[in-house]
Specification:
alpha/beta, single chain, six-stranded mixed beta sheet
Amino acid sequence: MNDEGKQGTLQKPRLYLDQNIYDAIRKGEFPGSLEKMTEEFEIVYSNDTIKEIEANKSDEIRNQYLDLFRKLNPTFLQLVLTEKFRITDKATFHRSPFEDVYTSWRKNEEETSNVPTAMGRLANKLIGGLPGVSILEIVEEQKTENWKMFQKTIEQFEGTNEEKIYLESQLKQVQGHLETVLSEMGRVLSENIKDGEDYPGIKMLRQMVGKGPKELNNIDHPNVIKKIWEEIKKSPGIKNSGLTMETFFGLDKHPIYPNEEYPIYSKVNTLYLKLNQIGYHPDQDIEKPNKFSGSMIDSSHVGNAMFCKFFATSDGKLAKKCSAIYEYLGISTRVIHFKKGQ
């Protein structure tokens, strides 16, 4: 079996489950047969699944999830990154015991828990969140936390002195590269966003396109995203702007590394955020950090599922956005929407 890439040759098709499906199973509310599902599909989960499990403050609920995953015996999906920790369109699949994966994840999380994600916070800022915080503040905060993380890694390293010197040199290179990227990103964004600390984000975008959920939610397959663009480009704020469809949706070039290949996985995340911004079956109040964080994890689930044959969710809004994105990008993963009471 080929454990890298998309589907490969399998005896059973891979099925990626959204967190709400695991939760329904845990509560005894799942409408289907658990035994039949595990017989017919290879169940797949990811780091993002674990993040949502760990977000539960109750040890009782965590233990219920542990029991559930023992029964499911799912496969762990892990994204393949480049040597510079950049996303690729490849994934590996592992059948390691869930307890081992979970323990490893928690250890890694403890070591990096104080490192905020600059990209996430900047994205939150660009949709109108984090009032009173400037873009440059976010960038400088991330630089500081990166430095702390690298220092901690070096301090905790238990290899030989020569190995430690080599590790330190490599981490300094990575740190220098990240600081350059963050500084450039902060400069460009600050030059283009003049109202810095109180950028209106979604409100301004929807005013510009002259559309919102009332108009866009009526658009359905086929060619959902193309139809959305056909509506949007008629708006006074867009039709004379010179924007192309690819530029408007952020698909013409990688926003951080414009001279490099733009992975499909990253395009999935970009489209998910943009559909939320303009109001196509949007998540509510995503300007708020906790809501934004949940929406970003949803977009990661949508990206992870592209490596599987099926993606199951009970979130109707997510299913609509996901189907539109997969259709536009030519991703063959089939979306299964389990409705309550189905």
